[in-house]
Amino acid sequence: MRFCDLIIKKRNGLKLDQKEIDYAIKEFDESIIPDYQMSAMLMAIYFQGMDINEIKYLTMAMVNSGKTIDLSSISGIKVDKHSTGGVGDTTTLALAPMVAAAGVPVAKMSGRGLGHTGGTIDKLESIEGFKTKLSLNKFINVVKKVGGSIISPTSDLAPADKKLYALRDVTGTIDSIPLIVGSIMSKKLAAGADAIVLDVTTGSGAFMQEYKDALKLGKIMVDIGLELGKETVAVISNMDEPLGFAIGNSLEVKEAIEVLKNRGPEDLRDLCLVLGAHMLKLGGAIRNYEEGKNRLEKILKEGTAFDKFKEMITAQGGNPEIADKPELLPLAKHCNKIKADISGYIQKIDSRLIGESAMLLGAGREKKGSEIDLSVGIILKKKVGNKVNINEDLAEVYYNNSEKLKEAKKKLLSSFVIGNKKPQKLPLILATISKEGIKEWGTA
After folding, report:
1. pLDDT average per 10 residues of sequence, the chain (444 residues)
2. What is 78-139 written as a DSSP string?
3. Which of 110, 183, 186, 204 is catalytic?
4. Best CA proximity match to 250, nearest among 95, 365, 118
5. Is 199 a catalytic residue?
6. What is the third-level CATH fold of 3-63?
7. Cα Rg of the chain (Å, integer)
Protein backbone atom coordinates (compact mmCIF):
# COMPACT_ATOMS: atom_id res chain seq x y z
CA MET A 1 0.00 0.00 0.00
CA ARG A 2 1.40 3.41 -1.00
CA PHE A 3 0.32 6.42 1.03
CA CYS A 4 0.60 8.68 -2.03
CA ASP A 5 -2.14 6.58 -3.70
CA LEU A 6 -4.39 7.16 -0.65
CA ILE A 7 -3.81 10.91 -0.85
CA ILE A 8 -4.84 10.90 -4.52
CA LYS A 9 -7.87 8.74 -3.73
CA LYS A 10 -9.13 11.15 -1.05
CA ARG A 11 -8.18 14.20 -3.15
CA ASN A 12 -10.48 12.85 -5.87
CA GLY A 13 -13.37 12.54 -3.43
CA LEU A 14 -13.32 8.76 -3.04
CA LYS A 15 -13.84 6.90 0.25
CA LEU A 16 -11.06 5.29 2.26
CA ASP A 17 -11.77 1.87 3.74
CA GLN A 18 -10.90 0.67 7.25
CA LYS A 19 -7.63 -1.01 6.26
CA GLU A 20 -6.41 2.13 4.49
CA ILE A 21 -7.24 4.39 7.43
CA ASP A 22 -5.72 1.96 9.95
CA TYR A 23 -2.55 1.84 7.82
CA ALA A 24 -2.38 5.64 7.54
CA ILE A 25 -2.75 6.30 11.28
CA LYS A 26 -0.40 3.49 12.36
CA GLU A 27 2.36 4.43 9.91
CA PHE A 28 2.08 8.14 10.74
CA ASP A 29 2.11 7.47 14.49
CA GLU A 30 5.29 5.43 14.01
CA SER A 31 6.85 8.30 11.96
CA ILE A 32 7.04 6.18 8.80
CA ILE A 33 4.71 8.53 6.89
CA PRO A 34 6.36 11.98 6.88
CA ASP A 35 4.60 15.18 7.96
CA TYR A 36 4.50 16.60 4.42
CA GLN A 37 2.50 13.62 3.14
CA MET A 38 0.10 13.60 6.08
CA SER A 39 -0.35 17.37 5.61
CA ALA A 40 -1.52 16.67 2.06
CA MET A 41 -3.96 14.04 3.35
CA LEU A 42 -5.34 16.40 5.99
CA MET A 43 -5.94 19.06 3.35
CA ALA A 44 -7.65 16.50 1.09
CA ILE A 45 -9.93 15.53 4.01
CA TYR A 46 -10.56 19.22 4.75
CA PHE A 47 -11.88 19.81 1.21
CA GLN A 48 -13.47 16.43 0.40
CA GLY A 49 -14.79 15.46 3.85
CA MET A 50 -15.46 11.94 5.12
CA ASP A 51 -18.60 9.86 5.45
CA ILE A 52 -19.79 8.36 8.73
CA ASN A 53 -17.91 5.10 8.20
CA GLU A 54 -14.63 6.84 7.41
CA ILE A 55 -15.00 8.98 10.55
CA LYS A 56 -15.73 5.87 12.61
CA TYR A 57 -12.63 4.11 11.23
CA LEU A 58 -10.51 7.22 11.85
CA THR A 59 -11.78 7.52 15.43
CA MET A 60 -11.09 3.88 16.28
CA ALA A 61 -7.66 3.94 14.60
CA MET A 62 -6.68 6.80 16.92
CA VAL A 63 -8.17 5.02 19.95
CA ASN A 64 -6.14 1.92 19.07
CA SER A 65 -2.92 3.94 18.69
CA GLY A 66 -2.57 3.93 22.49
CA LYS A 67 -3.94 2.45 25.66
CA THR A 68 -7.58 2.54 26.73
CA ILE A 69 -8.57 3.07 30.34
CA ASP A 70 -10.54 0.34 32.10
CA LEU A 71 -13.03 1.90 34.52
CA SER A 72 -14.97 -1.34 35.10
CA SER A 73 -13.82 -1.57 38.73
CA ILE A 74 -15.81 1.61 39.48
CA SER A 75 -19.43 0.66 40.17
CA GLY A 76 -22.22 2.39 38.27
CA ILE A 77 -22.47 3.96 34.83
CA LYS A 78 -19.56 6.34 34.25
CA VAL A 79 -20.58 9.44 32.29
CA ASP A 80 -18.04 11.78 30.70
CA LYS A 81 -18.62 15.37 29.59
CA HIS A 82 -16.76 17.32 26.93
CA SER A 83 -17.00 20.92 25.75
CA THR A 84 -15.76 22.03 22.35
CA GLY A 85 -14.42 25.16 24.06
CA GLY A 86 -15.39 28.69 24.85
CA VAL A 87 -14.73 31.78 26.96
CA GLY A 88 -15.56 31.71 30.66
CA ASP A 89 -16.61 28.07 30.31
CA THR A 90 -16.26 26.91 33.92
CA THR A 91 -18.91 24.21 33.74
CA THR A 92 -16.70 21.19 34.53
CA LEU A 93 -15.52 22.67 37.84
CA ALA A 94 -19.09 22.99 39.11
CA LEU A 95 -20.63 20.13 37.15
CA ALA A 96 -18.33 17.30 38.30
CA PRO A 97 -19.11 17.70 42.03
CA MET A 98 -22.82 18.27 41.28
CA VAL A 99 -23.12 15.01 39.32
CA ALA A 100 -20.90 13.08 41.76
CA ALA A 101 -23.06 14.30 44.65
CA ALA A 102 -26.09 12.87 42.81
CA GLY A 103 -24.49 9.42 42.78
CA VAL A 104 -23.18 9.22 39.20
CA PRO A 105 -19.39 8.64 39.13
CA VAL A 106 -17.36 11.22 37.20
CA ALA A 107 -13.95 9.96 36.02
CA LYS A 108 -12.86 12.84 33.82
CA MET A 109 -9.75 13.77 31.88
CA SER A 110 -9.59 17.43 30.88
CA GLY A 111 -7.24 19.57 28.85
CA ARG A 112 -5.34 22.82 29.12
CA GLY A 113 -6.32 26.09 27.49
CA LEU A 114 -5.08 27.09 24.04
CA GLY A 115 -5.61 30.39 22.28
CA HIS A 116 -8.71 32.29 23.33
CA THR A 117 -10.30 29.29 25.11
CA GLY A 118 -9.57 28.28 28.69
CA GLY A 119 -8.68 24.85 30.05
CA THR A 120 -10.02 23.04 33.11
CA ILE A 121 -6.61 21.71 34.17
CA ASP A 122 -5.12 25.23 34.31
CA LYS A 123 -8.05 26.39 36.42
CA LEU A 124 -7.66 23.52 38.87
CA GLU A 125 -3.96 24.29 39.22
CA SER A 126 -4.98 27.67 40.66
CA ILE A 127 -5.86 25.69 43.79
CA GLU A 128 -2.87 25.36 46.08
CA GLY A 129 -1.50 21.81 46.06
CA PHE A 130 -4.09 20.37 43.65
CA LYS A 131 -2.54 17.53 41.66
CA THR A 132 -3.81 17.13 38.11
CA LYS A 133 -1.33 14.37 37.27
CA LEU A 134 -2.29 11.13 39.03
CA SER A 135 -1.48 7.52 38.30
CA LEU A 136 -4.41 5.59 36.83
CA ASN A 137 -4.72 3.55 40.03
CA LYS A 138 -4.86 6.71 42.15
CA PHE A 139 -7.34 8.29 39.71
CA ILE A 140 -9.67 5.28 39.91
CA ASN A 141 -9.34 5.07 43.69
CA VAL A 142 -10.28 8.74 44.08
CA VAL A 143 -13.41 8.18 41.96
CA LYS A 144 -14.32 5.11 44.06
CA LYS A 145 -13.80 6.98 47.33
CA VAL A 146 -15.15 10.44 46.49
CA GLY A 147 -17.32 9.88 43.41
CA GLY A 148 -15.39 12.16 41.08
CA SER A 149 -11.92 13.09 39.88
CA ILE A 150 -10.52 15.37 37.17
CA ILE A 151 -6.99 14.82 35.85
CA SER A 152 -4.89 15.70 32.81
CA PRO A 153 -4.77 13.00 30.10
CA THR A 154 -2.02 10.39 30.20
CA SER A 155 0.50 10.57 27.35
CA ASP A 156 -0.48 7.15 26.01
CA LEU A 157 -4.13 8.09 25.49
CA ALA A 158 -4.81 8.31 21.71
CA PRO A 159 -1.20 9.42 20.96
CA ALA A 160 -1.86 9.53 17.20
CA ASP A 161 -4.37 12.31 17.83
CA LYS A 162 -1.71 14.44 19.54
CA LYS A 163 0.57 14.11 16.49
CA LEU A 164 -2.27 14.82 14.07
CA TYR A 165 -3.51 17.81 16.05
CA ALA A 166 -0.03 19.37 16.10
CA LEU A 167 0.08 19.04 12.31
CA ARG A 168 -3.47 20.37 11.85
CA ASP A 169 -2.53 23.38 13.98
CA VAL A 170 0.13 24.48 11.48
CA THR A 171 -1.57 23.46 8.22
CA GLY A 172 -4.90 25.31 8.46
CA THR A 173 -6.95 22.13 8.96
CA ILE A 174 -8.17 22.57 12.54
CA ASP A 175 -11.79 23.36 11.60
CA SER A 176 -12.52 20.18 9.62
CA ILE A 177 -15.59 18.44 11.08
CA PRO A 178 -14.37 14.85 10.38
CA LEU A 179 -11.00 15.64 11.98
CA ILE A 180 -12.63 17.39 14.97
CA VAL A 181 -14.96 14.43 15.54
CA GLY A 182 -12.10 11.92 15.30
CA SER A 183 -9.99 13.96 17.72
CA ILE A 184 -12.67 14.49 20.38
CA MET A 185 -14.34 11.09 20.22
CA SER A 186 -11.08 9.09 20.17
CA LYS A 187 -10.04 10.67 23.48
CA LYS A 188 -13.48 10.22 25.03
CA LEU A 189 -13.64 6.56 23.98
CA ALA A 190 -10.09 5.84 25.13
CA ALA A 191 -10.87 7.42 28.52
CA GLY A 192 -13.24 4.55 29.27
CA ALA A 193 -16.58 6.20 30.10
CA ASP A 194 -19.84 4.32 29.48
CA ALA A 195 -21.74 7.37 28.19
CA ILE A 196 -20.84 10.85 26.92
CA VAL A 197 -22.51 14.28 27.15
CA LEU A 198 -21.13 16.85 24.69
CA ASP A 199 -21.43 20.61 25.02
CA VAL A 200 -21.00 21.89 21.45
CA THR A 201 -20.60 25.65 21.61
CA THR A 202 -21.43 28.08 18.81
CA GLY A 203 -21.01 31.83 18.34
CA SER A 204 -18.13 34.31 18.36
CA GLY A 205 -16.24 32.57 21.20
CA ALA A 206 -16.52 29.04 19.78
CA PHE A 207 -14.52 27.13 17.17
CA MET A 208 -17.82 26.45 15.37
CA GLN A 209 -19.01 30.03 14.99
CA GLU A 210 -21.97 29.16 12.73
CA TYR A 211 -24.95 27.39 14.30
CA LYS A 212 -25.44 25.08 11.30
CA ASP A 213 -21.83 23.88 11.62
CA ALA A 214 -22.20 23.26 15.35
CA LEU A 215 -25.41 21.32 14.71
CA LYS A 216 -23.68 19.21 12.06
CA LEU A 217 -20.70 18.56 14.35
CA GLY A 218 -22.96 17.57 17.26
CA LYS A 219 -25.04 15.23 15.10
CA ILE A 220 -21.98 13.41 13.73
CA MET A 221 -20.42 13.04 17.19
CA VAL A 222 -23.65 11.60 18.59
CA ASP A 223 -23.92 9.22 15.62
CA ILE A 224 -20.30 8.08 16.09
CA GLY A 225 -20.80 7.56 19.82
CA LEU A 226 -23.93 5.49 19.24
CA GLU A 227 -22.25 3.54 16.41
CA LEU A 228 -19.43 2.61 18.79
CA GLY A 229 -21.74 1.52 21.60
CA LYS A 230 -21.72 4.62 23.82
CA GLU A 231 -24.90 6.43 24.81
CA THR A 232 -24.19 9.98 23.62
CA VAL A 233 -26.07 13.28 23.88
CA ALA A 234 -24.99 16.66 22.49
CA VAL A 235 -26.21 20.06 23.68
CA ILE A 236 -25.67 23.04 21.35
CA SER A 237 -25.04 26.08 23.59
CA ASN A 238 -24.68 29.76 22.80
CA MET A 239 -21.13 31.12 23.13
CA ASP A 240 -21.80 34.43 21.38
CA GLU A 241 -20.98 36.14 24.68
CA PRO A 242 -18.77 34.74 27.47
CA LEU A 243 -20.36 32.28 29.87
CA GLY A 244 -20.70 33.84 33.31
CA PHE A 245 -18.76 36.97 34.27
CA ALA A 246 -15.23 35.67 34.97
CA ILE A 247 -12.52 34.98 32.37
CA GLY A 248 -9.19 33.78 33.75
CA ASN A 249 -8.11 30.76 35.75
CA SER A 250 -8.36 31.64 39.45
CA LEU A 251 -11.25 34.04 38.75
CA GLU A 252 -13.23 31.21 37.12
CA VAL A 253 -12.57 28.91 40.09
CA LYS A 254 -14.13 31.59 42.32
CA GLU A 255 -17.16 31.74 40.03
CA ALA A 256 -17.56 27.94 40.07
CA ILE A 257 -17.51 28.07 43.87
CA GLU A 258 -20.32 30.63 43.73
CA VAL A 259 -22.40 28.23 41.63
CA LEU A 260 -21.72 25.42 44.12
CA LYS A 261 -22.90 27.75 46.89
CA ASN A 262 -26.21 27.99 44.99
CA ARG A 263 -25.40 31.46 43.70
CA GLY A 264 -23.32 32.53 40.71
CA PRO A 265 -24.23 33.74 37.21
CA GLU A 266 -27.57 32.55 35.88
CA ASP A 267 -26.24 31.35 32.51
CA LEU A 268 -23.38 29.30 34.00
CA ARG A 269 -25.69 27.76 36.58
CA ASP A 270 -28.34 26.95 33.96
CA LEU A 271 -25.84 25.26 31.62
CA CYS A 272 -24.54 23.14 34.51
CA LEU A 273 -28.11 22.08 35.31
CA VAL A 274 -28.85 21.18 31.67
CA LEU A 275 -25.65 19.20 31.09
CA GLY A 276 -25.86 17.63 34.54
CA ALA A 277 -29.46 16.49 34.01
CA HIS A 278 -28.43 14.69 30.82
CA MET A 279 -25.49 13.11 32.68
CA LEU A 280 -27.78 11.85 35.45
CA LYS A 281 -30.22 10.42 32.91
CA LEU A 282 -27.48 8.60 30.98
CA GLY A 283 -26.05 7.46 34.32
CA GLY A 284 -29.34 5.83 35.27
CA ALA A 285 -29.83 7.99 38.39
CA ILE A 286 -33.14 9.47 37.24
CA ARG A 287 -35.90 8.63 34.76
CA ASN A 288 -36.16 11.87 32.81
CA TYR A 289 -34.45 15.18 32.16
CA GLU A 290 -36.74 17.32 34.35
CA GLU A 291 -36.24 15.01 37.31
CA GLY A 292 -32.49 15.41 36.78
CA LYS A 293 -32.67 19.21 36.89
CA ASN A 294 -34.79 19.10 40.03
CA ARG A 295 -32.37 16.70 41.72
CA LEU A 296 -29.40 18.95 40.94
CA GLU A 297 -31.20 22.09 42.11
CA LYS A 298 -31.89 20.34 45.42
CA ILE A 299 -28.24 19.24 45.71
CA LEU A 300 -27.09 22.85 45.20
CA LYS A 301 -29.61 24.17 47.71
CA GLU A 302 -28.62 21.61 50.36
CA GLY A 303 -24.89 22.27 49.87
CA THR A 304 -23.94 18.66 49.08
CA ALA A 305 -22.30 19.61 45.76
CA PHE A 306 -20.21 22.24 47.60
CA ASP A 307 -19.13 19.62 50.15
CA LYS A 308 -18.32 17.19 47.32
CA PHE A 309 -16.07 19.82 45.70
CA LYS A 310 -14.08 20.11 48.94
CA GLU A 311 -13.78 16.32 49.10
CA MET A 312 -12.44 16.23 45.53
CA ILE A 313 -9.88 18.95 46.31
CA THR A 314 -8.69 17.12 49.43
CA ALA A 315 -8.44 13.77 47.62
CA GLN A 316 -6.13 15.32 44.99
CA GLY A 317 -3.83 17.06 47.44
CA GLY A 318 -5.34 20.53 47.26
CA ASN A 319 -6.24 22.94 50.04
CA PRO A 320 -10.03 22.60 50.61
CA GLU A 321 -10.03 25.84 52.62
CA ILE A 322 -10.17 27.80 49.35
CA ALA A 323 -13.81 26.71 48.92
CA ASP A 324 -14.73 28.64 52.08
CA LYS A 325 -12.10 31.34 51.54
CA PRO A 326 -11.76 31.98 47.78
CA GLU A 327 -9.58 34.99 48.61
CA LEU A 328 -6.79 32.43 49.13
CA LEU A 329 -6.70 31.86 45.36
CA PRO A 330 -4.02 33.79 43.44
CA LEU A 331 -5.09 37.29 42.39
CA ALA A 332 -3.20 39.78 40.21
CA LYS A 333 -1.58 42.82 41.85
CA HIS A 334 -3.48 45.45 39.88
CA CYS A 335 -7.05 46.15 38.75
CA ASN A 336 -8.10 48.53 35.96
CA LYS A 337 -11.70 49.39 35.13
CA ILE A 338 -13.00 49.61 31.55
CA LYS A 339 -15.76 52.22 31.25
CA ALA A 340 -18.46 52.86 28.67
CA ASP A 341 -17.92 55.90 26.44
CA ILE A 342 -21.63 56.18 25.57
CA SER A 343 -24.97 55.26 27.19
CA GLY A 344 -27.32 52.60 25.81
CA TYR A 345 -27.85 48.86 25.80
CA ILE A 346 -25.19 46.19 25.34
CA GLN A 347 -25.95 44.81 21.86
CA LYS A 348 -23.05 42.37 21.62
CA ILE A 349 -19.99 41.19 23.53
CA ASP A 350 -17.55 39.47 21.19
CA SER A 351 -16.45 36.37 23.12
CA ARG A 352 -13.39 35.77 20.97
CA LEU A 353 -12.06 39.29 21.56
CA ILE A 354 -12.67 38.92 25.31
CA GLY A 355 -10.82 35.59 25.31
CA GLU A 356 -7.96 37.09 23.30
CA SER A 357 -7.78 40.02 25.75
CA ALA A 358 -7.43 37.58 28.66
CA MET A 359 -4.76 35.69 26.70
CA LEU A 360 -2.80 38.92 26.16
CA LEU A 361 -2.86 39.52 29.92
CA GLY A 362 -1.28 36.08 30.38
CA ALA A 363 -4.36 34.01 31.26
CA GLY A 364 -4.08 31.88 28.10
CA ARG A 365 -1.55 30.39 25.68
CA GLU A 366 -0.74 31.54 22.17
CA LYS A 367 1.16 28.26 21.68
CA LYS A 368 1.15 24.91 23.44
CA GLY A 369 3.67 24.95 26.25
CA SER A 370 3.51 28.72 26.80
CA GLU A 371 3.66 29.81 30.44
CA ILE A 372 0.45 31.30 31.82
CA ASP A 373 -0.38 33.56 34.77
CA LEU A 374 -3.10 31.91 36.88
CA SER A 375 -3.88 35.17 38.72
CA VAL A 376 -4.87 37.49 35.84
CA GLY A 377 -8.13 37.87 33.97
CA ILE A 378 -11.31 39.84 33.39
CA ILE A 379 -14.56 40.27 35.31
CA LEU A 380 -17.45 41.46 33.13
CA LYS A 381 -19.79 43.94 34.80
CA LYS A 382 -22.36 43.90 31.99
CA LYS A 383 -23.90 41.25 29.73
CA VAL A 384 -25.86 41.46 26.46
CA GLY A 385 -29.18 43.24 27.01
CA ASN A 386 -28.01 45.19 30.07
CA LYS A 387 -28.42 48.98 30.18
CA VAL A 388 -25.21 50.95 30.62
CA ASN A 389 -24.61 54.64 31.32
CA ILE A 390 -21.67 56.69 30.10
CA ASN A 391 -18.59 56.17 32.35
CA GLU A 392 -20.21 53.13 33.96
CA ASP A 393 -18.01 50.03 34.38
CA LEU A 394 -18.10 47.47 31.57
CA ALA A 395 -15.36 45.24 32.98
CA GLU A 396 -12.58 44.95 35.53
CA VAL A 397 -9.14 43.88 34.31
CA TYR A 398 -6.81 42.08 36.74
CA TYR A 399 -3.19 42.32 35.57
CA ASN A 400 0.45 42.11 36.67
CA ASN A 401 2.14 43.63 33.61
CA SER A 402 1.34 47.21 32.53
CA GLU A 403 2.61 46.65 28.98
CA LYS A 404 0.27 43.69 28.52
CA LEU A 405 -2.62 45.79 29.87
CA LYS A 406 -2.43 48.38 27.06
CA GLU A 407 -3.08 45.98 24.19
CA ALA A 408 -5.57 43.88 26.15
CA LYS A 409 -7.56 46.95 27.18
CA LYS A 410 -7.90 48.18 23.59
CA LYS A 411 -9.13 44.78 22.39
CA LEU A 412 -11.47 44.43 25.37
CA LEU A 413 -13.16 47.77 24.77
CA SER A 414 -13.69 46.92 21.08
CA SER A 415 -15.54 43.72 22.08
CA PHE A 416 -18.51 45.71 23.45
CA VAL A 417 -21.14 47.03 21.05
CA ILE A 418 -23.56 49.57 22.59
CA GLY A 419 -26.78 50.73 20.89
CA ASN A 420 -30.04 52.54 21.60
CA LYS A 421 -32.48 49.61 21.56
CA LYS A 422 -32.54 46.67 23.92
CA PRO A 423 -31.61 43.62 21.79
CA GLN A 424 -33.47 40.33 21.66
CA LYS A 425 -31.18 37.85 23.37
CA LEU A 426 -30.61 34.34 21.99
CA PRO A 427 -31.44 31.44 24.29
CA LEU A 428 -28.53 29.75 26.04
CA ILE A 429 -29.51 26.27 24.83
CA LEU A 430 -30.08 26.18 21.07
CA ALA A 431 -30.56 22.45 20.43
CA THR A 432 -30.30 18.97 21.94
CA ILE A 433 -29.20 15.95 19.90
CA SER A 434 -29.73 12.37 21.06
CA LYS A 435 -30.64 8.97 19.63
CA GLU A 436 -34.22 10.27 19.50
CA GLY A 437 -33.16 12.98 17.05
CA ILE A 438 -32.61 16.77 17.07
CA LYS A 439 -34.70 19.13 19.19
CA GLU A 440 -34.08 22.80 18.40
CA TRP A 441 -34.81 25.48 20.99
CA GLY A 442 -33.62 28.58 19.18
CA THR A 443 -31.61 29.76 16.21
CA ALA A 444 -28.27 31.46 16.00
Report:
1. 96 98 97 97 98 97 95 95 88 97 95 72 94 95 96 90 90 92 94 95 88 95 94 96 95 97 96 98 95 98 98 98 96 96 96 92 77 93 97 97 91 95 93 95 60
2. -EEEEE---SS--HHHHHHHHHHHTT--EEEE----BTTB--HHHHHTTSTT------HHHH
3. 183
4. 118
5. no
6. 1.20.970
7. 22
Fold match flag (3-63 vs 79-325+428-440): no
Q: Which of 81, 112, 168, 278 is catalytic?
A: 168
Catalytic residue among 56, 78, 81, 82: 82
330-419 adopts what CATH topology?
A: Aldehyde Oxidoreductase; domain 3 (3.90.1170)
Architecture of domain 79-325+428-440: 3-Layer(aba) Sandwich (3.40)
**Catalytic residue (choose from 81, 116, 163, 187):** 187
The verdict on whether 82 is a catalytic residue reads yes
For the question of residue 334 being annotated catalytic, the response is no
pTM above 0.85, yes or no: yes
Ranges of each domain in the chain: 3-63, 79-325+428-440, 330-419
